[in-house]
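fyi for ur records
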Amino acid sequence: MDTSLYKSFITISETGSLTRAASILHIAQPTLTRHIKILQKKYKTQLIKTGPGQRHIEITPAGQILYKSAKNLIAIENSIEKDIINCTNGARGTIHIAISSSLTSGIISASVIPFTKIYPDTYFDFQEHDINKQMQLLKSGIAELGLCNKLLPQPELFDTHLTCESRLAIYINKKSKLLNNFVQNDVFIDDEKKLLKFPIKSLKSTLLNVPFCTIPESQELIANYCKTLFISTNPLSISTSKSTALQWALENRAIVFAPLSPGEPVPGDLKVYILPSDTFRCYRFLYTLKNRELSPITQKFVDFLIDQHFKEGHYHSSLNILKNI
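which gave:
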C-alpha cells in the first residue's frame, strides 16, 4: 500500500508548514503540494487553507478528520508490516517446553527473560513433569524442547543440543546459625562474593545434625553419598520444586540442598555454599526429537541458549561430559 500521500498530509498538519514538512520528508516542496492536490481531488473537499502571504497552514475540519484517520491508517500499516516480518523471521509465538521442575526458576532468570527482551512477542509454555512424562511429551509433539536433569530413557530418539554441569549447593538463611559449628570461616569462590566454599570434611556431621530439605535430584546425590559413609539421614522435606524447598531456608527452618544452575540468581536473604563438583555433579540436558523440524521461534531460542551459554562457558559438548559421568 502506498501511504506516501497520507504521510505527507500528516507531516504538513503537524508542522503547519510546507517548507518544514518537505525538509522532514526529504522531498521537493512542489511534490508535497501535488500530494495535497491529489488528496483534495480524491475526497472532493479542501483540506488546508493558506491566505495571501500567510506562511502558517490551517487545517480545515475535513482535514482534521483526515489527519486522525491517516494516523490510524499508518499505525495499522506499521503493525501489519511488523507482524509479517515477525512471522517470516519466526520472532513471535509460543515455545512449548517439557521441563524438570527443579530447572524452571533457573532457566527463567538466566535465559527466558533475556530472550523475551529481544523477542517480546514470545510466550513460554512450561510443562513440569518427571523424565518419563517429558519423553512422552516430546515424542507426541506436545512439547518441542526438553530441559531435563537426567538422560532420557531412549536417548537414540533424541538430539542432545546442550549438556550443562551444575553444582550442588547448600542454601541457608543469612541470619541462621545452623552451620556455625561446621563452617568456621566463609571463603568466597567467585569475584562477586556471592558463592562460598563448603568444607567437605564437615558434610557428614552436617547431614547428621542439621535439619535439611532437598528436591528429588539432590536427594539422590545425598543418598548415594551417605551410602559411601554407611550412614542414613532423614530430610525434613523432599519438595518437588526448588522454589518450594528454598522456602524452608527463607523461613530459617532448615538448610536446603539443591543444584545451582549457571546464571541463576540467589535470593537476597540466603547464602550459598558450593559443594565440590567432583563429588556432587548435576547435569542439565536440552533435547529435541530427532528429525522433527522446530518452529522458527523455538529454533531461535535453541540458538540463543547455545550462543548464550557457550559464551559464558557453562555448557560443554555432550560427548566430553558424558564420558565423565
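The CA atoms of residues 26 and 161 lie 50 Å apart. thats all i got for now
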